[in-house]
Specification:
By secondary structure, the chain is α+β, with helices and mostly antiparallel strands. It has helices at 16-27, 57-66, 77-81, 84-90, 100-107, 109-118, 132-139, 165-176, 245-265, 298-305, 310-319, 396-407, 423-428, and strands at 7-13, 31-38, 48-49, 71-74, 94-96, 126-129, 146-150, 159-162, 188-192, 197-206, 209-212, 217-218, 221-223, 227-230, 235-238, 271-281, 284-291, 333-341, 364-368, 371-373, 379-381, 385-393, 415-416.
Length: 429
């Protein structure tokens, strides 16, 4: 691929994941000009940011055509579910991400559960309901705790672990009848609560070919000690040593390959990221969910650990040439710590000036997530998760020390972070 003329790339999205993907394009000889829609101030340092929303499919296609874009990388799930890749393919534009039929595995938790059960892929027992009375009747026979999930997209927040019947009943009523998650919660999946340590596997898929990326572990709860409400992720590290080589072989044989083969058997030509959420239960790994794009903040640690050009991998997947590629990973650990606004994932302030250090060390990156440029030129907070502070190290301890030292050099009024990212792993060492 290296002998081709550099392509103009378009990154769709504006978060930390998209800034990570944009940085991969900056570092790749395969990419020349980089556009971002809508992008963020961090991406604007190397990209031409265009004020087109990530869910404005018509405008994104028009932008790609008018700017002679050769490769589109879609970060978030919404444009994938809305069929952006389908539309780009119609215009003969290469894109990384599944078409709408593949993105449906993220768009509907029930659809995913049906595939898992059909192909005997280990997962928890579950039932789907779109009538609250039927769901409540089912809950009367359930054992607790139990998990109630909004079937559709809910920005990572539509999963409630109900400790008792009263909480579960109220959650179901709020979702189906109360519109707690809009249309996404009009149908709910009630699922067996699995116990163990949670981790995730990112698989780059191209039809029946796939590459398993390094292991990683996200920290979803807002507060230290895995307490508080679920968030989009407060930090992550890679590799996650709780999955050793033998366990990875088991996961590949029982989960990854059957998942890829099952999706293909359904007639879906999936080209993109299959992000498999796992619970490492006492009886073995079980699938919690599929996502159909890179995780955020997992992407910040996974993509920075790739020795093979990430753009080359994504291009090969989009072209159906993934089977020809050998992927190499750096022999280093990575950690990302999210700097959030106090109050997240609830209400939080915006518009606070961010003070950055004058210099950033080698193998350290500050990825922007919820930021914008104020009228006076200052970069200010504009989201719950503001920055993803990322560092590589020879050990997880070194990566942690570097990441937290850099976190302490960044300031904004409501800065909030977890100080225990990777702590379980470090305590095991």
């Amino acid at each position: 691929m290296s002998d081709q003329a550099p392509l103009t790339a378009l990154i769709v999205g504006s978060g930390g994941r998209e800034h990570t993907l944009a940085q991969a394009c900056v570092d790749s000889p395969l990419i020349g000009r980089i556009l971002a829609a809508p992008g963020n101030p961090g991406m604007a340092q190397n990209c031409d940011c265009v004020s087109v929303a990530a869910d404005d499919i018509d405008a994104l296609v028009e932008l790609a055509v008018s700017e002679n874009v050769g490769f589109v990388i879609i970060g978030p799930e919404v444009p994938l579910c809305l069929g952006l890749v389908d539309r780009l393919i119609e215009k003969d534009i290469l894109a990384y991400g599944p078409k709408a039929d593949g993105a449906r595995f993220e768009g509907s938790k029930t659809y995913t559960k049906e595939l898992l059960l059909k192909y005997n892929i280990p997962t928890g027992a579950a039932a789907n309901f779109d009538v609250a009375a039927s769901a409540i009747e089912y809950l009367g026979t359930a054992s607790y705790p139990i998990v109630v999930k909004a079937d559709g997209l809910a920005a990572g927040k539509g999963v409630i672990i109900a400790e008792d019947h009263e909480t579960a009943t109220q959650t179901v009523t709020d979702m189906i009848d109360g519109g707690a998650f809009g249309d996404s919660g009009k149908s709910v999946l009630i699922e067996e609560c699995l116990f163990g340590e949670e981790t995730s596997i990112h698989v780059i898929v191209s039809g029946s070919d796939y590459v398993i990326l390094p292991t990683s572990q996200d920290h979803k709860q807002a507060y230290e000690g895995d307490k508080g409400p679920n968030t989009g992720g407060m930090g992550a590290y890679s590799p996650a040593d709780l999955i050793d080589d033998a366990m990875m072989r088991k996961i590949e044989a029982e989960i990854v390959k059957p998942s890829v083969d099952g999706i293909a058997a359904e007639g879906i030509d999936f080209r993109g990221t299959l992000f498999i959420g796992l619970m490492m239960t006492p009886t073995g790994p079980k699938v919690l969910e599929y996502n159909t794009r890179f995780g955020d903040p997992e992407s910040q640690v996974l993509i920075t650990r790739l020795e093979t050009d990430p753009v080359e991998i994504m291009l090969a997947a989009a072209k159906g040439e993934l089977g020809q590629l050998s992927v190499k990973v750096k022999d280093e650990y990575a950690m990302v710590v999210v700097l959030a606004s106090a109050g997240y994932p609830g209400s939080y302030p915006k518009g606070e000036t961010i003070h950055f250090p004058d210099t950033v060390g080698e193998n350290e990156v500050i990825f922007h997530a919820g930021t914008k440029t104020a009228d006076n030129g200052d970069i200010v907070t504009n989201g719950g998760r503001v920055l993803g502070v990322t560092a590589l190290g020879a050990t997880l301890g070194e990566a942690s020390e570097k990441a937290y030292a850099l976190c302490d050099k960044i300031d904004f009024k409501s800065k909030f972070l977890r100080r225990d990212i990777g702590a379980k792993e470090l305590n095991r060492a």
